[in-house]
Amino acid sequence: MYISNIKIQGFRNFVNNEIEFNEGVNVIIGHNNAGKSSLIKAIGLIINGDASRRLEIDDFSKSTSLIALQTDPPKVIITLTILQSPEEDLNSDDLVTVANWLTKLDEPYEAQLTYTFYLPIDKQADYISELSNCTTKDEAWLIIKHQYLRFYTYKIFGGNPALQIVADSESLQKFDFQFLNAIRDVERDMFTGRNTMLRDVLDFFMDYEIKSADESVKSSTQKYQEIKQLKSDFTSKAGVLINELQSRMKAGKDHILSYAKQTGATFNNAEPDFDGTISDVDMYSALKLIIGYSGLDIKIPATHNGLGYNNLIFMSLLLAKMQVNSDGKYLGSNAKVFPVLAIEEPEAHLHPAMQYKFLKFLKENKEDRKVRQIFVTTHSTQITSAVSLDEIICLHNENGTINVGYPGKTFPDTAAGKKSKAYVQRFLDATRSDMLFAQKVIFVEGLAEQVLLPTLAKYCAIEMEDYHIAVIPVGGRFFDHFLPLFDKNKPFTIHKKVVCLKDRDPERKLKTGGSFTSCYPFQFNQEPALYDYKDHVTDKITEYSAHPNIRFYGQNHRKGKTFEYELLLNNIGTDILITEYMTNRSELCTLIDFHKAKKLPVDFFEEIHKSDSKTKFMEAIEAITDPSWTDEDKTQAIVAYRYLASIGKGENALELANVLEENLKLPHIAPAEDPTTSIRTSFVVPQYIFDSITWVCQ
Prior knowledge:
Elements: E1 2-11, E2 14-20, E3 25-29, H1 36-47, H2 66-71, E4 76-83, H3 93-98, E5 102-104, E6 110-118, H4 124-131, H5 137-148, E7 153-158, H6 169-172, E8 175-180, H7 196-205, H8 208-211, H9 220-248, H10 250-263, E9 290-292, E10 299-301, H11 307-325, H12 328-331, E11 338-344, H13 352-367, E12 373-378, H14 381-386, E13 392-398, E14 401-405, H15 415-427, E15 440-444, H16 447-459, E16 469-473, H17 479-482, E17 497-501, E18 507-510, E19 517-518, E20 531-534, H18 538-543, E21 550-553, H19 563-570, H20 585-596, H21 601-607, H22 612-622, H23 631-645, H24 649-664, H25 687-696
Parallel strand pairs: 3-12, 3-13, 8-11, 11-12, 15-16, 15-17, 17-21
Antiparallel strand pairs: 1-2, 1-4, 4-6, 5-6, 6-7, 9-10, 13-14, 18-19, 18-20
Helix pairs in contact: 7-11, 16-24, 19-23, 20-23
């Protein structure tokens, strides 16, 4: 069996949400305050018998209205659905545990547990009367906190909650819910035998070679007798030590006890003395965990290690403890049936490489059935990139409304859908999986846009960090692979705003046959009788123009080609784009000067160094017959073409970003006290970039 579903009503930021779980590993991700910790808490309220099940006033959802509060007392309802595992043996203890909670008898069976935190009926009339005069929600909540919260009680119902049959505590105790929260510190004495958890683990694994022997080799009775004899032998040997201790302290003991006689403690023939025995269990307190280093004669106490390392050790001990708790031969009817491990932000103390190792370790333990179900909440892109899309559950909180996304379920069950899912799975490395955590996403074609976009946003008076936007480069042809993750019109998706910045990249092909090839913007639609034309962005802009959460933006005008090409067209009157290490720097500076001087295209051709590709470009310029392409348009195209050919996109973007950032630090106008101060160079952000940033930040 496994927890397949949870429904949460009125608990913290969950107003009314339903979340589905995997049988094995569940990696729960989301931005801050998305509800990850609250989700784990909700599970624990039902199956964690060691934690308090009473709630505080801040555990109620505050999204309810004043009228609703005045009509009915607020309550929390959490329902877990437990489903039969595909390969489960119906003769196992699983079915016995949930038998009284079944809501579906046919295979696969289903059972339900429902936690309800509510105000008893006998207090509700007073409650409604008291709150009828409230004028604000704050006033109502204050009255609930101080006058009615103490009357609240909880029940856990098994089966159909409408029948209100209280789940028996004995069956609930069969769940072993172990939770490690993010703000944790391993106690300094945790790695000594005085610690309760370590004592339990040591006691279980003591004489393990006997306990774990196959029944065909050694019967249970034989095992019991052997272990009993070992314990007896140990006590006998320990008795010799006790006698030696008694002998060494005889004189001192007589002196100590003389004070007892003087104080009257020997009244009525009472005589204080010292005696005792030592069992193997008593000796656990003398043990402490040490770390030895292979090949080196070095041993140090575990308490002297780093917090992250000790947390790994602690988690391994915790898993060992869960194995102890679920061993029926050792604990009999007290054994747990369903061990569940929940870990909050394991990355809090672990190096990125150790995060991957840790996750692999958890999966192996799940496969060995030492843990039946695992819940991990995380902000770590390292962990996200190491698990499958099917294991990820994404919580997204937008203006107080929680949306739950299941990345592995968003792709259609078609050949194209399977191809996209496989591509995204391979694509999500530790950097790119940030798209699943951010509140908003901008997909771009390459490194240049990724590097420059945050700086361009500043020229639009927007700090992208304030909006938690991830800029993800995905390549020009692969946008469609990622959109199923976020399409609000489809089920299971992550409802966050997504912008796709796509280059126009005009193309044409002969009507007589062949394939589409790149063409210059000034060649587009110039010979419709001879060529078919298309670009990469117009159809996408139209298709997504009314989409609820996805938009495409690009150079949607006749001069447009690529991102860098557009930067130059919008800033051709300045040399701010001409960075220090750019190839053909002097040539570009000359061409910009020619443009300022309004020289003709033929003058530009004289300045450009000749090559086959450059010759073809110049011939194409000269072949323009469309009168709407003026000499000004042509010279702009020449400069943009040479600029695009002169940059290594990633390297130039890094250098240009630095230049633009330094430019932002300069004043618009030189101060009166020092008119020689450098002032900011005018820089124009392309309109489609401005529009995209503005839309995603709305």
